Amino acid sequence: MCGPFKSCPGILRLLEIIFSALSLLIVIFRGRMVSPWGVWCEFVWVFCIIVPLVLTVVEVKMWHILLAVFLPNWADLTCGLTVLCAAMITSATLIFAAVFICLSCISSILCFIFSVVAAVVFLVDAVMQKMKCPSGYLSSPRGVLRTAEAFTACIILTAATDHFVNGEWFFRPFGMMCSIIVFAVCLLVTVVIIVLNLLKLLQCLLSFGLNMMELVFNIAAVLLYLLAVILWLVFGYKRSGYNPYIKCSYTDLNTVSIGAIVNLVFYIVDLVLSFKSR
């Protein structure tokens, strides 16, 4: 090994890129996946190629020193992104195995194997970086909660999209549409809050404190998620028995329901932490 791949972290990043790329290439040559779950898997593999590649280039060029004004804690950012990649590719691997693998699908089995290896490498890398105990927003309980909220929302929206794609084209209850809007808006605001916490200079643009913004958002998110969960459960399961794609419908309905409840708990915990930090 030479260049940026001399050290153990460098070798791990190289393996992450290689096995994520192999998983993506096999799927591309096999044929494009139009299912929302397939699109999610492809997005995750692309994300898991870009993140270690960009981190490696930035560190080799020493650009992270120049970015210290905007990103005061580079170790925290790399650790947080690696943990996120580990969670994402683990989810993509499990989803791909559950949705697309069959005993006669050799290409899908190979893709699954490469994705499993990539997930293991990311998990090892994440554990090694966590052992260094980086200090920063993404390594704090608040940062971990925000990341978990955003990740869970992505799974929720993918499942909701798959539910409507595979179901009756005219079955679009207003209550379920409102739930999807709530999930999407809360995801967007959560990502914005993460970016504001990472880029300290952007906080100067706010006419009010970021802590106050987070407190108000957490209160709104808890109330909106509670409403969204109720609407999804009422309108979704009310018509599920009439859906011709009942197995797929129940799978996606249950995924959204469980994911929304989990995210509601995350936002409640985040709200409690917001009150404690004041």
Features:
single chain, 278 residues, mainly alpha, 78% helix, flat
Pick out the low-confidence regions. Answer: none
The description of the largest β-sheet is:
none
Outline type: flat
Based on secondary structure, the structural category is: mainly alpha
Q: Give helix and strand order, one letter per element, not per position.
A: HHHHHHHHH
Approximately how much beta-strand content do the residues carry?
under 5%
Distance between the termini: 50 Å
The whole-angstrom Rg is: 20 Å
**Number of distinct beta strands:** 0
Overall pLDDT confidence: 87
**Approximate helicity band:** over 70%
Number of helices: 9
Oligomeric composition of the shown chains: single chain
Q: What does the model show?
A:
Helices cover 78% and strands 0% of the residues. The protein contains nine helices and no strands. The protein has helices at 8-30, 36-60, 63-66, 74-99, 106-131, 141-166, 174-198, 210-239, 246-277. α1 (8-30) runs antiparallel to α2, α6 runs antiparallel to α7 and α7 (174-198) runs antiparallel to α8 (210-239). The longest helix has 32 residues, at 246-277. It is flat, with a radius of gyration of 20 Å.
